[in-house]
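User: Please run a holo structure prediction.
Assistant: Happy to. Please share the sequence and the ligand.
User: Here you go; the ligand is zinc ion.
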Amino acid sequence: MRKFVTTLLLACLPAAACAQPAVQARPAPAAPRLLIVISIDQLSADLFDEYRPVLLGGFGRLSRGTVFRNGYQSHAASETCPGHSTILTGLRPARTGIVANVWIDQSLTRSDKSVYCAEDERVSGSSSTAYTVSPLHLTGATLGDKLKGSFAGSLNVAVTGKDRSAVMMGGRNLDQRWYWDGKRFATDLRSTVPASATRANAAVAALIAIAQPPLQPPEICSAKARPVAIEGTDRSVGDGRFERAAGDVSGFRASPAFDGAVLALAAGLVQEMKLGQDAAPDLLSISLAATDYVGHGLGTGGQEMCLQLFSLDRDLGDFFRLLDRSGIDYAVALTADHGGQDIPERLRLQGVAASRVDPALAAAEIGKAIAAKLKLNGPVLLGDFFGDIYLDRALKPADRARVLREAVAAYRAHPQVEGVFTADQLVRTALPTAGPDRWSMIERARASFDPGRSGDLVVLLRRNVTPIAKPSRTFTATHGSPWDYDRRVPILFWRPGMTPADREEAIETVDIMPTLAAMLGVPIQSGSVDGKCLAGVLGIACPSP
Ligand code: ZN
């Protein structure tokens, strides 16, 4: 990917002009000219801890900054959209309104009652799978929104693998927002298309058109190359090396080359837009999704994830070196939107009592049994195996109360269920104030509960239950649980010349935004965010509370 990044950079054109607001404040004296915030989709703290000693490229550099190995996406709904919504708003999903990747809105007039977190369902003809990308559902401003409101000339740019990551990290007031739409890099903004986006798309199309030979694994990865059969399928994972046929777009997306392409586009935009080259600080948000696609399709414990992380480490290292050569004064923060867990089949080989979810736990199945028992018609319950479960809004109030009681009892009686909380219970639960490593299950659920969007019930599964009953080629392992393998993520801060520091205390991803705001000199109103400024990080002077 090194050649790819360099070619794009050399080919870039002069900066695009962007409209700016009036000056309202001055950046902090020590503010970097360019702040880069990176999210590695599904990079659990467990994976970071395991690989940190051997990743000496981009991760190695950031590991010599301030390292919090006990960062938390503290909420229960550990999915991509809620997780990304916390990083640059400083708000937990209960306040960003992004309670899941997809929730159910039974008041919609369209036949599809599912709502995608980054869609605008008011657009006629749209559905949760064929939608117009929009920040409509995100409550609260991002750091980039606030930066542009604070300093004339500041630019806010997001480049990501997934559209929802770009929306949740970028917010509403952006100069460029680019994400992979399944075939190419695309944008929902009506701004002029930068030359680097056109070139990135041409380069990626050329890459996808050619068959790719298997990657050569370093010894540490080949030592993990043991095939493990996935139950209920005729396939095994563990020894893959990412070879792919010409034209295999989904294979490209679930390979290390995908992150390289996103970083190449980001590097191109840094040069073309002259990010970090004037007095007003700029923000570049990057979300890299290949780790997530690799984790979902192949699990986290095999040769494939090892190859992915080594490749990502090298590409991040190349990206930072390009920035070094440009002479830009930059700082980096890196975290993840959630963690993840390996396939249960491989976990069992290591003695972990892991299982796949019982198909009988599907909301449709539980609902069918309740409807039969209470002699009711219709689906009664809507939802998946866990998380937000909704009562059919067509139920009469008396039936609704009966169904709710039956559903709570049915879920509680199931051996794979850890906890069931009703919306009433969650509304009455205070948001926790203790460290995120000490939260109870209901507190974790409360942190991603919004009474207007969340379920009538929130169901949490037991530890080591993978909520995939029938694995597929792209979906064998996942995240989404309230357990620390899905909640705990690394949070790293780096700036050239800083003294390395490892910090063991448990912090939250919502602490990132107020910390970076203090570094930049962006004012944050007291009480407007859930996070706190982290004293002593990057030499930042936190404002007095
Ligand atoms: Zn994710």
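The chain has two domains: 2-98+138-346+482-520, 358-415+417-461.
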